[in-house]
Specification:
2 copies of one chain form a homodimer. Chain A is 71% helix and 0% strand. By secondary structure, chain A is an all-alpha fold. The longest helix of chain A has 26 residues, at 130-155.
DNA sequence: AATAAGTAAGTAACCTGTTACTATCTTACA
DNA sequence: TGTAAGATAGTAACAGGTTACTTACTTATT
């Protein structure tokens, strides 16, 4: 947001930032650019422009483009982890935490529209690749935490003992992802939070079981 | 799989196919290639190679690359529509149709792993683009059909009258998409059908409502 | 003075689309 | 039926553009 005017006045004020700073700026730039264009289409040129630097300079801070993406994924994993941590930290009954987690996750991707696009993009990489593994790790860890909550709720009697905890965790995570897909398709950010509020009770009822 | 040796023996047997045939072959090639690599990364060169033709020949049958993708989406919309049609045609109670639709959809994408990748890829295109609109239309139409079934089930007394039909439709469609995302991430095709079987009952219980 | 950050101008690879030419099929007609 | 003509499918090579990455040189900071 601070650049864009770097073409006026040439390099009148050649701002110098530390390597560390530039690396963070680059990650932010990628997240922002993902909001507008397809992640695969983000060029090193565009990243450099956005942070107000020639694109040669970018390669002083990253050995290659792949490692820029690695940095983006590190950021992403850390942020998503923190979102979950906060939801857990507030405490309360397992089902309450689950609900908080659900909405927190939705709110996070709603306020960072680039994030789901990056994850979807990752789904297209060959299954073996490093970044695919990273994405897998992030979602997998999330699913495990959800499953733990469900098991806990079963133990506490808030969910029926016959509930398939694995299936429930898959459904929970899948619901978040499904909402993201639909909101991306129908591109209404506010819509997503609203849809989440209406969908969650149904999800919970499914866990509680009607016919069991 | 049948190409790759086209450099031995030169053009020993120059096979000629009709334009119509080549166009279909190209679409098939794109679907197949999407299984392995990112759809955005599929080059006209690769498509041509796969159908055993120089890439100049490809442009005899399509004016440009975009229209290849248009053809792919036509194919996709038609096939997905047919899957839904069959599920409806078999008849029965609304909830039964819903279940059949769910599993049919899952089975289809499980047997065409390239399809979800193409749709995910589409999610990354700028929201206004033609192809984004096509994807939107496909998913939107599907959701409407699901909603109609739910309304019908409410009328027939198989679902509670207080059920939020819109939210339920979103959840239903979202569940399919969530399963696809997870199976792509954890790349087990068989896994997806199994997960679908375990998840569906939970979904249905959610519709029936536990607390209402 | 030394080091870290930045620039400008490459380069090699690759990608879409074009063009000038060639081979094959179809069909009209002698 | 045989063949010339026209249409159709295919090829090879290239043009123009973009992309990731490099290199030789410049400027700021400590």
């Amino acid at each position: 947001m601070t650049n864009k005017s770097s073409n006026d006045m040439e390099s009148a004020v050649r701002v110098r930032h530390s390597a560390e700073e530039r690396r963070e700026e680059a990650v932010d730039a990628v997240i922002e650019l993902s909001r507008e264009r397809s992640p695969e289409g983000i060029t090193t040129q565009a990243i450099a422009e956005r942070i107000g630097v020639t694109h040669g300079a970018l390669f002083r801070h990253f050995p290659d483009k792949a490692s820029i993406w690695m940095a983006v994924f590190d950021w992403l994993g850390a942020r998503l982890g923190r979102v979950a941590d906060t939801a857990f930290a507030a405490g309360g009954e397992p089902l309450l935490i689950l609900e908080r987690l659900f909405h927190a996750q939705i709110a996070f991707v709603a306020s960072h529209p680039g994030v789901p696009r990056i994850l979807f993009h990752e789904l297209q990489r060959p299954a073996g690749s490093t970044l695919h593994g990273l994405a897998r790790g992030i979602v997998g860890a999330y699913r495990e935490r959800v499953k733990a909550l469900i098991v806990q709720a079963k133990a506490g009697g808030q969910l029926p003992p016959g509930l398939d905890a694995d299936a429930a965790a898959v459904l929970f995570v899948g619901t978040v992802q499904g909402l993201v897909v639909q909101s991306t398709l129908f591109s209404g950010e506010l819509d997503m939070r609203d849809a989440a509020r209406r969908v969650f009770p149904l999800l919970l009822d499914g866990f509680r079981g009607a016919s069991a």
